[in-house]
Design brief:
It comes from Flavobacterium sediminilitoris. This protein is an all-alpha fold and 124 residues long. It has five helices and no strands. It has one domain (3-121).
Amino acid sequence: MNLISQIIIAFVALLHFYFLWLEMFAWTTKAPKVFRNFPKDLFGKTKTMAANQGLYNGFLAAGLLWSLTIKNPIWSQKIAIFFLSCVLIAGIYGAISVSKKIFYVQGIPAILGLISVLFLKGLL
């Protein structure tokens, strides 16, 4: 993979590690400052649910980082495309079901990563 693809993939992975931290470990402390539209009284009640979401974000981040460590360029690209697609789908669903801001934070970086990886692959 080219350097631009690797940087974008690493950025998306770091975003999802941040989401993991926020949802698993800082849901009742820092998350209320980030999710201002979410009712303050629900942060404590939804702590377990948020931790579960955080775990899924961690899986996405781990998969993206995994794609950067694979020595076979074909498999590295395939794994990156799979996990970037998962992030994009989550961003689209989040935009439809919760807030359009989710698409901008999650979906746009995933699209940039997919374009970068696909362009390198010669598909675009």
